[in-house]
Amino acid sequence: MAPQTPSNPDEVLVIRNVTPNIVTLSLPFSPFGGVKFGGRGTLVRLVTGSIAVFSPVPLTPLVHEAIASLGGQIKYIAALNIEHHLNLTAWKDAFPAAEIIAPEGLWEKRQAVAEFKDTAFTHVFRKDDHEPPKISDEFSAEFVVEYVHGHQSKELVFLHTPSKTLIEADLVLNLPATEQYSRTGESAASGLLNRLLKPLASTEMSAFWQKKYVWHVSAMADRKAFGASVRRIAAWEFDRIIPCHGDVIEGNAREVFLTVMERFLTAF
């Protein structure tokens, strides 16, 4: 069985300037017995020069070069949910002044792993808080955040308002992960298991199967809360979605989001 993550990240890493201030770091990731989900981290340079990284990938020499190309000032490290966290400590060690942003439950989860447990979190989103945490003035000037605590993985979704870009982990999936496998020499759609499960994570054919997956799996913890978050996100202005799994969605991103989440827009 192929490993979930590449042993040689820089040999297969795809670095792309989506905009002058947004750089994606895309690479293979194959959980669930080889399903080619792909993985992606995103760097965003703020007007102030500070850089936020979302769902950080392994901190390799090429990733350091990408950071340097944006000025090198990593100030925010965001875990987009309780699953996307394995590289937080390495980034925090490399950039000790950076502030970690995460959903509730992740810090507790990491206490079982010796190398993770001493990594401090700065901003934690909790569903019972009357107000979400204030990250900083510079961050709030460019980002809107929705904590989708009804998602089984406790998603944090960020809207970068200057570029109308939605940055998320597992809320919307967009397989096949063509870009993330483009340097591997293999098709992102190959493999029997991959072909069988791909429809659950695809936006093709009106996202028929992904709609079912979101309703029955992603939102099963609290569909009412999930739907409330979805409706708030649906009111945002965006034309690009950068997911962690699958290709970036350009141009018609909001329409794709509304299609995938259609049932939540009318169910409650």
Write out the strand line-up for the largest beta sheet, numbering strands in chain order: 1-2-3-4-5-6-7
Helix share of residues? 25-40%
Distance between the termini: 43 Å
Low-pLDDT sequence parts: none
Largest sheet: 7 strands, mixed
- Oligomeric organization of the protein chains: single chain
Overall mean confidence score, pLDDT:
93
Tell me, what is the CATH class? Answer: Alpha Beta
Q: What is the N-to-C order of secondary-structure elements (H for helix, E for strand)?
A: HEEEEHEHEHEHEEEHHHEEHH
CATH homologous superfamily title: Ribonuclease Z/Hydroxyacylglutathione hydrolase-like
Q: Given the C-alpha coordinates, what overall shape results?
A: globular
| Rg measurement, Å | 17 Å
How many discrete domains? 1
Remind me, CATH topology? Metallo-beta-lactamase, Chain A
- How many strand units? 12
Instruction: Tell me the β content.
Output: 15-25%
Count of separate DSSP helical elements: 10
Structural class by sheet pairing and helices: alpha/beta
The CATH architecture can be given as 4-Layer Sandwich
